[in-house]
Write a structure and sequence with these properties.
This protein has helices at about 45-65, 80-85, 100-150, 170-185, 185-190, 200-250, 255-265. By secondary structure, the chain is mostly helical.
Length: about 290
């Protein structure tokens, strides 16, 4: 622990924070580990901790708004005012047209959640459509086998086969080929109790299957895009807070109480690291 000009000592880490003003002791900063209060859509823990810090910083600026107004006769907003305005508050609503950093982070997390919903919804829809398509194809292939046998034309079955792959694209292409072939001999299928529009129904099933696959891909892309946008927004916020930290260190250099309030607001809480449970001791070998 270092000594400064007046012989006082200043701790490091969680207890104290050096601000460049060694003549004023900095009060302890209370840290609450692993208590993130962000209640929005999914955000990783590190981003959530920083979002909570931005919220506290915004509240700090709102509570002390009168301390950052320009000195008359100047009417130009102070740097602190500009930075607090850019950061915004956790109540800022992107749907109401707010463009503050807090609003943009909320919009990104909302997009992340919407993309995740579309992705999982697309997954469910695709599975349902795939199962339905396979069921239709198996019924048509079974009838094709009966027709090939009755007509003594085993070569008919060259087209009526399921692919040996799980590829969605191959399955869709196979289904379209089967529909085309079945259309040329639809009368034989209708004799075996297939509905008159069975070829049209099969083609509609293929289209629905391909649409569900597309919805899943779009949902995944949207989710990944929204998630990727959160990191740069968080970095933008950290840059704002760093500038505000420099301002507060100078403005409150002789006011330990206000400096302590700023440190508490701008502190980023860290998640507690789970301790490994030690393995139980090995019992002694039984005495012979």
């Amino acid at each position: 622990m270092a000594k400064y000009g007046d012989g006082s000592k200043y701790g490091s880490g969680a207890k104290y924070r050096k601000t460049g003003t060694p003549d004023i002791p900095q009060p302890p900063v209370e840290i609450h580990k692993h208590k993130h209060h962000y209640k929005g859509p999914k955000m990783n823990e590190r981003h959530a901790a920083r979002f909570d810090m931005f919220k506290r910083v915004g509240d700090f600026g709102t509570e002390r708004v009168a301390e950052f107004v320009p000195v008359p006769p100047s009417t130009t907003p102070t740097k602190a005012q500009v930075l607090f305005t850019a950061l915004g508050l956790s109540t800022d609503d992107p749907d109401a047209g707010s463009t503050t950093l807090m609003a943009r982070i909320k919009a990104a997390t909302k997009g992340q959640q919407a993309g995740a919903g579309a992705y999982h919804g697309g997954t469910t829809s695709k599975e349902v459509q795939r199962d339905g398509l396979l069921l239709d194809l198996r019924g048509i292939i079974k009838s094709a086998g009966a027709i090939a046998e009755a007509q003594g034309k085993p070569e008919i079955m060259d087209t009526f086969r399921l692919p040996h792959t799980n590829s969605n694209e191959v399955l869709a292409a196979t289904a379209r080929a089967i529909a085309d072939k079945a259309e040329t001999m639809s009368a034989a299928f209708i004799e075996l109790e297939h509905p008159a529009n069975f070829v049209t129904a099969l083609r509609q099933r293929v289209a629905a299957f391909e649409s569900a696959d597309s919805d899943q891909n779009v949902g995944q892309e949207n989710q990944q895009g929204a998630t990727a946008s959160i990191g740069p927004l968080i970095q933008e916020g950290l840059t704002i807070v760093k500038q505000l930290d420099a301002i507060m260190s100078n403005k409150y250099r002789s006011d330990a109480e206000k400096m302590g309030a700023w440190l508490a607001a701008s502190h980023v809480e860290r998640a507690a690291v789970a301790k490994k449970t030690p393995a139980p001791p090995t019992p002694p070998a039984p005495t012979p």
